[in-house]
């Protein structure tokens, strides 16, 4: 399984996920840069994602939704703040309402995704999300962020091999 560590730290209001992939950094980056590839892994296996807008460039906005087995949609948005291809990108990450507009009642995190080559030709990825408050962090933990994130990231090796 790609995910090797999942930690939450209420003191720093962070979630950090570490994963190892059996593909070079450029290939992993390509998955995040291409909405059609990202749809295959962004969300738990039973909640496939659809990206309506997506670009990995500073100032760009990404809009997506995941569809539950019952057909209910859960949306999200990113605002890309930094890109250092193929090693790092940073973004604000939030939830949307049913019209795919940012939902101000839900937490927003500051995310940094980093990718570094490993000696075996693979990639070590570190995903860090920082919340404004410990309460916001706890809210996403209570919503199942660990189970959802781990199951989504654990799909990536298969998608990269396809």
Automatic annotation (TrEMBL):
CDD domains: SRPBCC_CalC_Aha1-like. Transmembrane segments: none annotated. SUPFAM superfamilies: Bet v1-like (SSF55961). Belongs to the AHA1 family. This is Uncharacterized protein YndB with AHSA1/START domain. Residues 22-160 form the Activator of Hsp90 ATPase homologue 1/2-like C-terminal domain. InterPro entries: ASHA1/2-like_C, START-like_dom_sf. It comes from Ornithinimicrobium humiphilum. Coiled coil: none annotated.
């Amino acid at each position: 399984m790609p995910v090797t560590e999942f930690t939450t730290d209420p003191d720093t209001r962070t979630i950090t996920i570490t994963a190892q992939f059996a593909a070079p950094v450029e290939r992993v980056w390509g998955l995040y840069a291409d909405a059609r590839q990202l749809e295959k892994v962004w969300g738990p296996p039973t909640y496939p994602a659809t990206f309506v807008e997506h670009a990995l460039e500073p100032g760009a906005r990404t809009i997506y939704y995941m569809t539950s087995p019952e057909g209910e949609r859960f949306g999200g948005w990113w605002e890309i703040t930094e890109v250092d291809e193929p090693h790092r990108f940073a973004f604000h990450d939030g939830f949307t309402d049913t019209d795919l507009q940012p939902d101000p009642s839900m937490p927003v995190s500051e995310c940094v995704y980093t990718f570094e080559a490993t000696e075996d030709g693979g990639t070590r990825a570190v995903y860090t999300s920082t919340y404004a408050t410990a309460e916001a962090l706890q809210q996403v933990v209570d919503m199942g962020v660990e189970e959802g994130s781990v199951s989504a990231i654990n799909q990536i090796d298969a998608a990269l091999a396809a």
